[in-house]
Amino acid sequence: MGRTSDAKNKILKAAAALIEQRGYTALGVAEICAAAGVPKGSFYYFFESKQVLALAVIDEHWVTQRRQWEQLLGSDRDPLRRLQDLFEATEEVQRVGQQEAGVVAGCLFGNLALELSNQAEEIRSRLQEIFEEQIGLIEQVVVEAQQRGLAGPAVDSREAARSIVAQLEGRVLLAKLLNDPTQLETLWRNCLDLLQVPTQARTTIG
Fold first, then answer.
1. Which class for 173: exposed (0-12), middle (13-18), buried (19 or more C-beta within 10 A)?
2. How far apart are CA 64 and CA 43, in angstroms?
3. What burial letters (b/e) apply to 33-56, b meaning 16+ CB within 10 Å?
């Protein structure tokens, strides 16, 4: 059982790294197995197809990322500061990735959405669910900020959260395109404007 689980984890880890580096379409099962150091037969023991593997990679990545988001957005800090923490953590992930690989990898979900949204319905649907979950997590913080008088009361919390996620993805895409993690630095200022944060509140965040 241990060896079986180990082989599956090796395939998942290798597939995640290769998808991050090269995308999904160009990858073959043989290449994934070679990178994982497992026989090709092992792949089909665990996964019916490459698409099923991609869905497993997506789910595993979201488990890790959601845990981080929940820790950052659920802390006892002021709600706006929690959003700033999320932006800073996202930038740091891209910065570390660039230091290790020489290039900004971008967001796994955003990369796959751009590559596969018109080709693989199951993947498109799963990515949509994840983005909606992200929007929901951020919306909770926006609502709390409004309740504390830190964000404009007329702001539509759901649409604001959707815009923040879209801006986050867009800035990560620019960082990938320009190989420049500092492209994420404007997220915070833009978020303050989007949420109509009063001037006095901006000086007391933290």
1. middle
2. 23
3. bebbebeeebbeebbeebbebbbb
Cα gap 85→107, rounded to integer Å: 17
Q: How far apart are CA 204 and CA 206, in angstroms?
A: 6
pLDDT for 76-134, tens place per residue? 999 999 999 999 999 999 999 899 889 998 999 999 999 887 788 999 999 999 999 99
Q: What is the mean pLDDT of the chain?
A: 92
User: For residue range 156-184, what is the model confidence (pLDDT) as tens digits?
Assistant: 999 999 999 999 999 999 999 999 999 99
Q: Which amino acid is at 99?
A: Q
The pairs formed by 43-50 with CB atoms below 8 angstroms and a separation of 24 or more are 43/11, 46/7, 46/8, 46/11, 47/11, 50/24
* DSSP H/E element including 94: helix 79-101
Structure tokens that stand for 103 in this block: 């290039």
Structure-token pair, residue 133? 């979950």
Residue 146 contacts residue 153 (beta carbons within 8 Å): yes
**Long-range contacts at 95-102 (CB < 8 A, ≥ 24 apart):** 95/181, 98/179, 98/181, 101/21
